[in-house]
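Recall from the previous chapter that SMILES is a line notation for molecules. Here it describes molybdenum atom.
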Amino acid sequence: MNSAAFLPPLPEGAERSVVIGRSPGFHLKPPPAPAGLREFITSDAQLFETIHMGSVEVDAKRWRLQVDGLVRRPFSIGLDDLRRLPSISVTAFHECFGSPLVPAEGNLWRVGNVRWTGVPLAVLLEQAQLEAGATHVWSDGLDSGEFGGRRMNRYRKDLPISKALSHEVLVAYEMNGAPLTRERGGPARLVVPGWFGTNMTKWLCRLSIQDRRANSPFTTDWYNRDSEHEGKVIQEPVWAVEPNSMITHPAPDDTISTDDVEVKGWAWSNNGIGGVALSADGGATWQEAEVRPRREFEWQQFAATLALPRTPGPMSIVARARDADGSIQPLSGTRNTAHSVQINRLLSGPKTADTGT
Ligand SMILES: Nc1nc2c(c(=O)[nH]1)N[C@H]1C(S)=C(S)[C@@H](COP(=O)(O)O)O[C@H]1N2
Ligand SMILES: [Mo]
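With both inputs in hand, we obtain:
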């Protein structure tokens, strides 16, 4: 590693001069419906985008990432030098939690699966040399503006140091082999595989090592939720992704005239999928799908030939994933509610009594 690449910290605020364009206001590019997400790798065109306060255009030539706080060697680094550091690629599902203001009562499937390339955050933290007492990494984005009735001069998130040091967490500069676009957070963003998209700060300009959680609307006011631990409900940051899934085949309103149907889809969770069960009779009986073993943080394909009840007309197929610890998707009411697809069952011939002859 070339230590000459590292300059003293920039004075507070100086990094802001690299912003050369702004599109103020909330921006959401919704994903296609599940039946439109049949590819293992989601293209940039098909991948959702969520931006709270507006996107920024960053001058990549002048951009620098500052690393400071509880470190012995604070530094800043430009894009060319960042690209010369050891890099890795990680394929990971990428999921948005949904609005931090209005809790989702149904599934948004704001999700995709992409390959990120960048420098492990651990490499940068090692270069900076953490001091005793470091517990959190605060990450700042160059975007500013208004969201949820508040004005903010920075997007700021935090990560506990244990996750920050995990090998899969990246300061990424490429997605699917191409430089990050403006909307994706170029020239560099945080990527936190297994955790919700909100933690993955775009237009990254600063990593600050601290001994507590960041006091920002995006950390302590929003993006926390109730979680049950040993019978007690506590508030927990929106971090690890719970089991979720979606059916990609068949598509809604497909007409099925055979006695069984090929069902396929994707399932994902922070700690991997333990199984996916399918039902075509409203949950009276369940059939286990084949699930592709997990690699890296990819979403996992499930597939099964599902026998259909011999009743004509509309009929629903439900997929229910559980994670490696057995935690299972609820059938209603939550942001990870099990997906149900309605098809039309056409009987090819009149039902004949089976006389066994
Ligand atoms: N700086 C900054 N980073 C951000 C956001 C933002 O508004 N500003 N949105 C977050 C949210 S909520 C999500 S889900 C992901 C979305 O990443 P994508 O738009 O590239 O899919 O970016 C996260 N990083
Ligand atoms: Mo999000």
